[in-house]
Design goal:
The complex is a heterodimer of chains A (about 120) and B (about 110).
Chain A lengths: L3 E4 L2 E4 L4 E8 L5 E7 L6 E7 L2 E5 L6 E7 L2 E7 L7 E8 L10 E3 L3 E5 L1
Parallel strand pairs in A: 2-11
Antiparallel strand pairs in A: 1-3, 3-8, 4-5, 4-9, 5-6, 7-8, 9-10, 9-11
Chain B lengths: L8 E5 L4 E6 L9 E6 L6 E6 L4 E2 L4 E4 L5 E6 L8 E10 L3 E3 L5 E6 L1
Parallel strand pairs in B: 1-10
Antiparallel strand pairs in B: 2-7, 3-4, 3-8, 5-6, 6-7, 8-9, 8-10
Classes of the chains: A mainly beta (about 120), B mainly beta (about 110).
């Protein structure tokens, strides 16, 4: 099974709201990722967690706050977002996170976020 | 970071082979080439990856040149459901695996 699940599928929020996106995998993967994808553009890496520790933050604004409570779960907490943050947010996971040259990522279906 | 370049779009007739090229001239010796595809508004789907030898699985074949500066993904018998954006990716280890997506190739399979 190579399934990564994401909830919710769609989210509409106002600029003053606080919401969270959730991602889950049960493949025993120890690396998890958040990407942002605007319409007709490729995904852009936001954060990487390795063994539940944040290892890469691609200079993402602090209104996006990731959290990895355990090896199967990844959250993205959202606060005071702007309309330009509307996008498809993708989660991914991979098995190997330290030093190997090959590491296949598996992506979830994404959460479509609209900020009003 | 290794970067990839791909043609923005390609057409293919249904039932024919689709050959999608990718240039990755700055790839390092131990970096793998990955191919993913994304069907409209879905998450990217893994297709295949390779280092320097040609690879084949149930979905596709991957041909990597001897100098590793370019590769070609081959879908042997394209169907309408193969219409998607295809991404060629080189993943870089920087304390965590960093994936940089290029612009991808939009493949249109026509009946």
């Amino acid at each position: 099974d190579t399934e990564v699940t994401q909830t919710p599928k769609h989210l509409v929020m106002g600029m003053t709201n606080k919401k969270s996106l959730k991602c889950e995998q049960h493949m025993g993967h120890r690396a998890m990722y958040w990407y942002k994808q605007k319409a007709k553009k490729p995904p852009e890496l936001m954060f990487v967690y390795s063994y539940e520790k944040l290892s890469i933050n691609e200079s993402v604004p602090s209104r996006f706050s990731p959290e990895c409570p355990n090896s199967s779960l990844l959250n993205l907490h959202l606060h005071a977002l702007q309309p330009e943050d509307s996008a498809l947010y993708l989660c991914a996971s991979s098995q190997v996170s330290s030093g190997s040259s090959t590491d296949t990522q598996y992506f979830g279906p994404g959460t479509r976020l609209t900020v009003l | 970071d290794a970067k990839t370049t791909q043609p923005p779009s390609m057409d293919c007739a249904e039932g024919r082979a689709a050959n999608l090229p990718c240039n990755h001239s700055t790839i390092s010796g131990n970096e793998y080439v990955y191919w993913y595809r994304q069907i409209h508004s879905q998450g990217p789907q893994y297709i295949i990856h390779g280092l320097k030898n040609n690879e084949t699985n149930e979905m596709a074949s991957l041909i990597i040149t001897e100098d590793r500066k370019s590769s070609t993904l081959i879908l042997p018998h394209a169907t309408l459901r193969d219409t998607a954006v295809y991404y060629c990716i080189v993943r870089v280890w920087t304390g965590g695996f960093k994936t940089i997506f290029g612009a991808g190739t939009r493949l249109f399979v026509k009946a």
